[in-house]
Amino acid sequence: MNPTNHLAGLLMFILVVFASVAIFFYLIYCRWVVMRVATPINRFDRIGERIKAVVVFALGQRRILNSRFLDAGIMHAFIFWGFLVVSINSIHFIGRGFYPDFHLPFLGDGGALQLFYLYLRDIFEGLVLVMVFYALFRRLVIKPSRVTLSADALLILGLICILMVTDLLMSGAKAHQQLEISPAGLVVSHLFENSSASKVANVFQICWWVHLVSFFFFLDYLPISKHFHVVTALFNVFFKSLEKGALQPIDIENAEHYGASKPHHFYWKDILDIYTCTECGRCQASCPAWATEKPLSPKEINESLRDYIWENTSTIVRNRNGNLDELSLKGDPMVGGVLSEDTLWACTTCRACEEACPLFIEFIGRIVEMRRHLVLEESRFPKELVTTYKNLENNGNPWGIGASMREEWADELIAQGIPVRKMREVEGEVEVLFWVGCAGAFDDRGKKITREMVKILNAAKVDFAILGQEESCTGDTARRTGNEYLFQMLAESNIETLNNYKFKRILTQCPHCFNTLKHEYPQFGGKFEVVHHSEFINELIQQGRLHLKKPVTATVTYHDSCYLGRHNGIYSAPRQILKAIPELNLVELSRHGSNGFCCGAGGGWMWMEENLGSRINHNRVEEVIELQPNIVATACPFCLIMLDDGVKDKGQDERLKVLDIVQLVSDALEE
After folding, report:
1. Is 0.85 surpassed by the pTM of this model?
2. Among 25, 428, 602, 670, fewest CB within 10 Å belongs to which?
3. Would you tell me the crossing angle of helices 151-176 and 112-137 to the nearest 10 degrees?
């Protein structure tokens, strides 16, 4: 029954196969060239971890099966696993076009392994068909808001359906002719009970050609569709960032451009990310900017950049060995045209999109690169940042308060007889350098937390000291708003100061300071052991150095800081602290842990006004109010400020308190 048993059929088969394979590899080559001319970045380190990630997240579909999107996750996982199983059958199908008796080792001798595979293939072909119909039902009937209905998706689902149905019909035809017996084949063969051998052979040949053409059309369509992830997904997971917290630095003195204004300015992994986007919308569903009617959808960023790159791929390929900076590209400018400035500035860098993406697509780095272009090359940025940058340059803090006032809170405590040492007065090494941070030194709410933190440190007999006037902003705001020059200036100054002193660890109470000191200062030689107060206090409790005896009778919920949680994976320590406080009842928000909702302060938004859509902190506070706790606890001064403002705006400040976990621990300390 094989159509290639005849010369005409064989020649047609060879033409289809070789033409399709040539088209596929040409398209892959064009996609690869765009990646090759992009900015280099090393993603070939720690190979063992990368292979493990592929096994767990790509082959195991761990993120796909996230409980928030479980129905869609199960659907996709079975389609994916089905393709893996059926791919063996596809190898047999193509191989037998050349050699009728072709088979992979141990899968063509009629033995137990072949029979097992045929059973497995039939099961997964049936599952894939069921999942394809469910996918069509979701898109055409349920219509989830995060998913955009497109002809592209319907075409791919249709092709998958054709491939499964034609293969099942061929199995039935072969079973009817006693050529190959499989469970599904035996069932389908009943369709041919009253058919002659020649009619069954004709059905087989029609299905064979339809299957062949559909398979290679599917293959050639992948590189020009959103389903290119079928090819790129495993690679994208393998090359994922293994470090969450740090942005890539710019070589300020030698860089030919600052940030990204053209596709080749991105890192090659950014291009791979753009190619890999499945448009599943999980990033969009998790984005606080999108949830509050801002013009930012991470999914649409990928779509817009992908379309822009595809539109200009032939131009880039032709000029791949020339000066791409001078190349005139089709369409609007990438920054400010393809992607509006409002879109780029709406991001809070909360990392919810990256946490939700099943294929580890990275968004923040790309957005910050485009912000860098706007700030450093175009001098175009929100007007509020003019004051912020000036304050950072002149006073070393975004509040713009004189550096001489940075240790005023400490002097007040010293005057009350409470010991607070300053590093410049210390001889030798201290156990802990307490990095107070700008909020802890200048904001009234932040200073309350700082005073209570000192109380805790003294109660636990921790040998600590502060930098005081020598401390300056770590530069988190400058870096994430694109002012890399200012960030590096602040970082180098702080590193020089820190290198003058001896200490075992740096203790921070701000997750933004923590993240910058821990993950980004090493890029400039500042390698220090850094701990956030949530982990440090929990450590003191576990060691028996802190005794929480006084009851705090209240119901509390904990708001996860993005830079403590998603950027650094610290979720349990704050909760363990709260659970250690007598009579304090901890209840969880519906959006908590890695699915927590941003307060709205990150990415520089602590210093900018939300003029588009609704306020992110209001969205979060409404969720807190619905839960009806007495206290919402935080472990970040920015979160505390944003939530406190939101509670006041909603008129709930008499009923609902916003406190740092430090304040609750201080209240529970035995006298």
Report:
1. yes
2. 428
3. 150
